[in-house]
Amino acid sequence: MKAWLIAGLLLATPVLAQENPMQPSATWDDLRESVVGLTEEPPVDAAILDLDAPIRAHDAAIVPIRLTQPADAPDLTDLILVIDENPAPVAAEYNFGSALMPLDFEVRVRVNAYSDVRAIGTGPDGAQVMAGRFVKASGGCSAPAGKDMTTVMDTMGQMRWKSAQEDGRTIGTLMIRHPNFSGLQRDQVTLLNIPPHFIDTLEVRQGEEMLFTMSAGISISEDPVFRFGYTPNGQPVTVHIEDTDGNSWDQSFDVSG
């Protein structure tokens, strides 16, 4: 339980605004259209979307990313999270329900080299906006797993949920046990490469109403934690998870956590 609490507190600590804006990136110039599918550079506008991240990561395998919007910002329905210099740059693609607006959403990612970390959000009218930070980190995708393989197998798929009131808004925290192996790590006993094995689909709902969905790759951290503000509707929060090995897990939590 202590590990769960530490994970939650890491995201619960506000990320202060940092003087680490995105830097010119030849990598981004190459992948913007070919990988992300953008024919034009989205505008950067903190009045619609902002992204906070540390200037220098304490742990490259667990880098906290916080996406926020001002109270009067237009809604976002979709968002792509990109880490330019990671082996698979698209970290995750999200769909958001209206209950998450205005957005206040946190996730932990792996950063493999000094890189811009950027989010491209899309509104209901198709208008796009971008936000990002330059993060100094390296080796996050190949960092050793935090637990031995026996513990991984025994705990994989376990979930915890808690909710709390902060500044007049309900904050939900979802914690999931999963190694999210990137395929670049080595087993510390056998020294053999561990095959990729990660959560690729996540759906979080309250009753029938979608809170958010995620389609992810290798860049989401081990034992992922998601922390987000939302407007509760009184229905249980349900979670559906699928991973690349064909496993799936479902769990329901009452609104009190």
Q: How many E strands? A: 14
Q: What fold name stands as the CATH topology?
A: Immunoglobulin-like
Low-confidence stretches: 12-17
Helix count equals 3
Mean pLDDT: 92
**What series of H and E elements makes up the topology?**
HHEEEEEEEHEEEEEEE
How many domain units? 1
The name of the CATH superfamily reads SoxY domain
Largest sheet: 8 strands, antiparallel
Name the shape in a single word: globular
Percent range of helical residues: 10-25%
Strand content: 35-45%
Radius of gyration: 17 Å
Gross CATH architecture: Sandwich
Domain Sulphur oxidation protein SoxZ: 163-253
Signal peptide: 1-17
Keywords: Signal
InterPro entries: Fuse-rel_SoxYZ, Ig-like_fold, Ig_E-set, SoxY, SoxY_sf, SoxZ_dom
Structure summarized in a few sentences:
This protein is mainly beta and 257 residues long.
Description:
The chain is mostly beta strands and 257 residues long. The protein has one domain: Immunoglobulin-like, CATH 2.60.40.2470. Helix content is 11%, strand content 37%. Strands 7-6-3-4-11-10-13-14 form an eight-stranded antiparallel β-sheet, with no helix packed on it. Strand 8 and strand 9 form a beta hairpin. It is globular.
Features:
8-stranded antiparallel sheet; Quinoprotein dehydrogenase-associated SoxYZ-like carrier; 257 residues; 6-stranded antiparallel sheet; signal; SoxY_sf; 37% strand; mainly beta; single chain; Immunoglobulin-like
